[in-house]
Amino acid sequence: MSVDKSTKAPRGTVQCENTNINLLKANDFVADIIKKEMAKSNTLLVNITSSAGSGKTTLMQKTAEKLKDKLTIAVMVGDLETERDAERIRETGIQALQIVTGGICHLEAQMIHQVLDQFDLPNIDLLFIENVGNLVCPASFDLGEDYRVTLMATTEGDDKPKKYPRMFLTSDMMLVSKSDLLPYLPFSVEAVTKDAHEVNHELEVIQISSLSEEGIDEWCDWLVEKVKQKQQA
Amino acid sequence: MHETSIVNSIMRTLKMEFEQEKLNTMKAIHLKVGILSNIEPRLLHNAYSAYHITNPGYHHVSLHVESVDIKIQCEVCNHITDVKNYRFLCENCDRPSKNLIQGEEMLIHKVEFED
């Protein structure tokens, strides 16, 4: 932050402070605290974002099912109302906590920090944040995550990366979900990948289906590798 | 909803940065927001008006929002490109780049106080 404080201005004039402070500094301050807590416990924190209905919760269930014997996984899930998603995830036998935002369309670092003490972090290898289904605001709020993963369902249409560029620009991985529906939809994986790479050439892409299990092993291997890297860091 | 959170964050941030006594003399807040910030200036002004209903102390403080276009600087040839249609490619050498030099900012750029 560059602070260029004006010297004493003559009486009757306006004094200006050129601040250049990030206007989400209050959020980012808490995000840094979360990062430090995760570093202390060697827990990998993954923020899962997408539009509503692209299969985040089903992917959480499938991931828990596949990896729960290898890793200790927990999920915090944000929604405007209801505890339905956390209940669905708990059915797989892992800890899941619902964050009800009460109408707010994204999760903020403060909300994550408030519930962190509900988790036994030193014994959790992988903590997911299932964000509120929305490709706009969740892109702006750093939650202290190690990786941001965005689901892009084949049912949404292949034009989303250019419509919501900040989300794809700030993500590390794009999961093209519901790939089992590809034969029935006018959706081009090639086109969506091309657009996404024009926005962010470093974005990793995996095509997945939680129902047919296409790509699920590759996704789980990616997670296991990232957990290993975090624990060796 | 998003803009409401951002207004709250701006006010929280200012309270972290300045003493309350100084904030009482605040006259204007100037923001710089990049096209990639997902902040719509008109909606931010609406959210700011709504903020005053529950926080009447700052109703006299004006808000100014400047939009900023997206620019990248190529890591290889150093050329600066105005990004159009969200194609993050250097227009000179056609290489992809994420080296944003402008367009992502969400800044409280300047604050004015009564002397």
Tell me what the structure shows.
The complex is a heterodimer of chains A (233) and B (115). Chain A has 233 residues and is of the alpha/beta class. Chain A has one domain: P-loop containing nucleotide triphosphate hydrolases (Rossmann fold, 3-Layer(aba) Sandwich). Chain A has helices spanning 25-41, 56-67, 84-90, 109-115, 160-163, 165-169, 189-199, 216-232; strands spanning 4-5, 14-22, 44-49, 73-79, 95-100, 126-130, 147-153, 173-177, 204-207. In chain A, strand 8, helix 7 (189-199) and strand 9 form a beta-alpha-beta unit. Chain A starts with a strand and ends with a helix. The mean pLDDT of chain B is 92. Chain B has three helices and six strands. Chain B has 115 residues and is an alpha+beta fold. Helices cover 30% and strands 30% of the residues of chain B.
From the structure above, extract its key features.
heterodimer; A: 233 residues; alpha/beta; Rossmann fold; 7-stranded parallel β-sheet; two-stranded antiparallel sheet; 8 helices; 9 strands; 22% strand; disordered N terminus; B: 115 residues; alpha+beta; hypothetical protein PF0899 fold; 3-stranded mixed β-sheet; 3-stranded antiparallel β-sheet; 3 helices; 30% helix; elongated
